[in-house]
Amino acid sequence: MTSTTNPNPRILGTGIQEGLLLKPVTYPWAYDLYNQAVANTWFPHEVQLGEDLSDFARMSPDERHALTHLMSYFNPNELLVNKALAFGVYPYVNAAECHLYLAKQMWEEANHCMAFEYVLETFPIDRAAAYESHVTVPSMAAKEEFEVRYIKRMTEQTLDISTVAGKQDFVRNLVAYNVILEGIWFYSGFMVALSFRQRNLLRNFGSLIDWIVRDESLHLKFGINLILTVLEENPDIATEEFAAEIQDMIIDAVAMEEAYNRDLLPNGILGLNADYINTYVKYLADRRFEELGFEPVYGVANPAKWMAAANDTLELVNFFESINTSYEVNARA
């Protein structure tokens, strides 16, 4: 019988009989994140959203448009992340502790989808219009097409994870869904969503977003640690050309988010406008560049310092050179 233990463990692989033993844990950072995720378990209906209905009734048309626009984007993309995980990450990872975390993350993405359904059920939002927007609004559709392009490479084409090209595709998918979708685009939307509460509106909705952000911060930590581990174990994939490609992916993503935010806030609300949010997007992108070991590109200050606790993930070292093997789980101050 084939052994279920591996004397030289690697985080990537497709062996069905590998990764069947949890202890001893090979990647403690993944096991720690799984335990944190379990401790964070929550359910949408624990929040009394109905108490926010009076706020919704007195919101301006532009404010209601912004909330609907956010639901249009968040709802389908939580499920899109699950496809990226189920087809583009889980099958190519061997470690049992990573599988535990990914299973919990997939449940969390489903829970977030149900949370946004709860919002749509509670507030008098045109559900059909909200659902259609992710394909009919060009800026929103462009973001989805970007993500689908990378996920399709993992799901609809043959991917040989033992090759340099296959491993690079794996990392591209992680950057697309984890660093960009979850780490920049989602956080941009979270800032707008939480801005309502900053103006004493939709306070319970804000609590729901808080819980989602808490989950997403762990998703981001897991994804970045996974990227670093793959690079540490496979240094041959970290070429200058690949580094430049990763940087260009993030720069392109910032441009797409800028266009999206102009559609989100065509006239400005709550003291916010698209330029303000897009400065925050560039700040987020610089943070992700730094966490991956690159130099900042935009050099802007955080315009929403009240979001600082949500922004912080890990203090990491160079993406392609000095890979840190002492991964920290807790966010930095």
UniProtKB/TrEMBL annotation:
<dbReference type="InterPro" id="IPR000358">
    <property type="entry name" value="RNR_small_fam"/>
</dbReference>
<keyword id="KW-0479">Metal-binding</keyword>
<feature type="transmembrane region" description="Helical">
    <location>
        <begin position="174"/>
        <end position="196"/>
    </location>
</feature>
<feature type="binding site">
    <location>
        <position position="182"/>
    </location>
    <ligand>
        <name>Fe cation 2</name>
    </ligand>
</feature>
<dbReference type="GO" id="GO:0009263">
    <property type="term" value="P:deoxyribonucleotide biosynthetic process"/>
</dbReference>
<feature type="binding site">
    <location>
        <position position="109"/>
    </location>
    <ligand>
        <name>Fe cation 2</name>
    </ligand>
</feature>
<dbReference type="InterPro" id="IPR033909">
    <property type="entry name" value="RNR_small"/>
</dbReference>
<dbReference type="Pfam" id="PF00268">
    <property type="entry name" value="Ribonuc_red_sm"/>
</dbReference>
<comment type="subunit">
    <text>Tetramer of two alpha and two beta subunits.</text>
</comment>
<feature type="binding site">
    <location>
        <position position="109"/>
    </location>
    <ligand>
        <name>Fe cation 1</name>
    </ligand>
</feature>
<feature type="binding site">
    <location>
        <position position="216"/>
    </location>
    <ligand>
        <name>Fe cation 2</name>
    </ligand>
</feature>
<feature type="binding site">
    <location>
        <position position="78"/>
    </location>
    <ligand>
        <name>Fe cation 1</name>
    </ligand>
</feature>
<keyword id="KW-1133">Transmembrane helix</keyword>
<protein>
    <recommendedName>
        <fullName>Ribonucleoside-diphosphate reductase subunit beta</fullName>
        <ecNumber>1.17.4.1</ecNumber>
    </recommendedName>
</protein>
<comment type="similarity">
    <text>Belongs to the ribonucleoside diphosphate reductase small chain family.</text>
</comment>
<keyword id="KW-0812">Transmembrane</keyword>
<feature type="binding site">
    <location>
        <position position="219"/>
    </location>
    <ligand>
        <name>Fe cation 2</name>
    </ligand>
</feature>
<keyword id="KW-0215">Deoxyribonucleotide synthesis</keyword>
<dbReference type="InterPro" id="IPR009078">
    <property type="entry name" value="Ferritin-like_SF"/>
</dbReference>
<keyword id="KW-0408">Iron</keyword>
<keyword id="KW-0560">Oxidoreductase</keyword>
<dbReference type="GO" id="GO:0046872">
    <property type="term" value="F:metal ion binding"/>
</dbReference>
<comment type="function">
    <text>Provides the precursors necessary for DNA synthesis. Catalyzes the biosynthesis of deoxyribonucleotides from the corresponding ribonucleotides.</text>
</comment>
<dbReference type="GO" id="GO:0004748">
    <property type="term" value="F:ribonucleoside-diphosphate reductase activity, thioredoxin disulfide as acceptor"/>
</dbReference>
<feature type="binding site">
    <location>
        <position position="112"/>
    </location>
    <ligand>
        <name>Fe cation 1</name>
    </ligand>
</feature>
<keyword id="KW-0472">Membrane</keyword>
<dbReference type="InterPro" id="IPR012348">
    <property type="entry name" value="RNR-like"/>
</dbReference>
